[in-house]
């Protein structure tokens, strides 16, 4: 199953938050959604599920435009963690609501996910700590048996063990190929090991979509020291400088070809070392120098 967002635009309170936004995402895929604070990640999620009506553009699942075939929306779930309607309900009651909304809701799955984490059905959601609330949201997402799951900051404030429980659940669900996750997160380290692709949201649109395995095979992050203070042309022309400390230059080369390597070697570096390339490096290079408007 494949979701396609085309030319999405949304203005809120006079501010154009999304504009000409396009991407695809399908089951079997874990896609990360990253961006600076206020970039519009939550707005995008709300727009995908029509909690916010898009001003322009469309969202389709397997070619069915959700505006014209609203029943296709049942293939998509977004539980907005900051605005849940069930704070005062106990965990059993919440499941009844979801079972009414999602015809394939699996009560046994929900109960076993809660039991595995010692969460009694009699507890009210609002009485739980933030981490356990995140687990309940995850249990609802999974038990709803919906193919395309939107997660908004699922790792925010979670301890290592709860975080691992959520990561494991995501990986297991996707492995079977019937689910896909779109995960908005500032936790770049967690996304780095989890996402197949990462979408960078900038100025209201997807400025870059990166397949992490592919980028790691094509790009390189290097630490370089040259004998003089002059930065060689190849570094400026073919690389993106991430950091300069004294004479130590850390640069990202998006296309680290044999030609680039030869040009660097020809510049006779005193030190030239390949460093592990992380999602944080890609984030830094994408957003460096971005002018912020709040
Ligand atoms: N209901 C609203 N009323 C007014 N402005 C809004 C509303 N919802 C979103 N915005 C504005 O839209 C922009 C995008 O907000 P959004 O919450 O989507 O960003 P985000 O990328 O999820 O941010 P963060 O990473 O900080 O959670 C912000 O400038 C925000 O102030």
UniProtKB/TrEMBL annotation:
Q: Which UniProt keywords apply?
A: ATP-binding, Nucleotide-binding
Give the species: Lacticaseibacillus jixianensis
Q: Which PANTHER family match?
A: ABC TRANSPORTER ATP-BINDING PROTEIN YTRB, SKFA PEPTIDE EXPORT ATP-BINDING PROTEIN SKFE
Q: Where are the transmembrane segments?
A: none
Per UniProt, residues of the ABC transporter domain are 3-228
Alphabetized Gene3D superfamilies for the sequence: P-loop containing nucleotide triphosphate hydrolases (3.40.50.300)
Q: Report what the protein is called.
A: ATP-binding cassette domain-containing protein
Judging by the UniProt lineage, the source's domain of life is Bacteria
The family database entries (Pfam families) matched by this protein are listed as: ABC_tran
Q: List the molecular function annotations (GO) for this entry.
A: ATP binding
